[in-house]
Design brief:
- This protein is of the alpha/beta class and 429 residues long.
- The protein is 40% helix and 15% strand.
- The strands form 3 sheets. The chain has a 7-stranded mixed β-sheet, sandwiched between helices. Strands 1-2-3-13 form a 4-stranded mixed β-sheet.
- Helix 4 runs parallel beside helix 12.
- It starts with 5 loop residues before the first helix and ends in a 13-residue tail after the last helix.
Length: 429
Amino acid sequence: MSTRYKKSETLLERALRTIPLGSQTFSKSKTQYPFGVSPYFITRARGSRVWDADGNEYVDFVNSLASITLGYADPDVDAAVKAQLEAGVIFSLPHPIEMQVAEKIVEMVPCAEMVRFGKNGSDAVAGAVRLARAYTRRDRVAVCGYHGWQDWYIGSTARNRGVPQAVRELTHNFPYNDLSALDILLKAHAGEFAAVVLEPMNTTHPAPGYLEGLRDVTHRHGALLVFDETITGFRYAKGGAQEFFGVTPDLATFGKGLANGYPLSAVAGRAEVMSLMEDIFFSFTFGGETLSLAASLAALTKLQTAPVIEALWRQGGNVMKGLARLIEKHGLADVCAVSGNAPWTFFMINDAPPYTSWQLKTLYLQEMFARGILTLGSHNMSYAHTDEDVAQLLHGYDEFLGLLKEVIANCSLARHLKCQPLEPLFKVR
């Protein structure tokens, strides 16, 4: 048992007795954090920083899997939630705040004419798919990117255990930035596709005209275009990636930063399609829970009145430029790269024989955690990140990349790695 993470490891041992993987969320579990060099439990957070069970402090670039946009314990969000708590959390009839948040989303998001709420991004995307199937009276769905845990999508991935084969066969993957591949796929089952669902961007920029062309191909085949903006929504622009790229889908889904960490998601889109929500069943006992809606109203209002998006782009840009310079400085352009857009960027590690990217990523996590940086390889920026936070991150990268260069040159990974390497697992992107 390590000294630095002793309490975390003790808690993990206890949690595994009652919780599969020791966590409610796959991406927060021991599958992602190498044992012996990782924290497993966080006990408090404020602004851009979190503290683990052992009291170690980190600048957080995971930000609760990108659900924190403003920073932890944002005072405006907290004040709104506390005020709503005094009035009540859930009732036997809707609270007016439901329509207030829906109106705010319609005001901000280009495609939004009507809105329905869920709790997780998975809820929202599954709802959008059901809507598209009801509207088009078709069954097949084309997907690109990660879209949650429910059967319709996860059955198309390596994590398909428990999903009926008949369900798996209805979802088809297509590659990003390849219009001809999508066209061929839709032609192969002509008249059978209800929707094309994709993250408008994650690690890779859309080629010029790609999103516009994708919309045209989708509509030419009689399907609906669904943007999964669970992460890009309220991060790239106030109206999401659709506003940033100037391409309006038929439906869009939101989650993550919609309520700055409170459990809320949304399906939004054309009224003609959304009105079918009256006929299909998309209903939750906690769908109108008011604390999350109060948090959302405060968070969205702050996005409109404070330079939140500008700060995400500025500080994220500082990370991208600084990291690119460090990769060049250490001569590691063949092994490492930085990708994505400034508010949501990715540090990429390739194989460097005899080492795999997974082995090198394990070293990366070990070294960054030890330097007080919480990351899984992405930089999910928040409004709370300061110049000092970015400087600490880049200093950590500078030291890690120097070590990585030495490890590759001298084949010395075994001497520096203090744990078993991570194993290749299901990747969400």
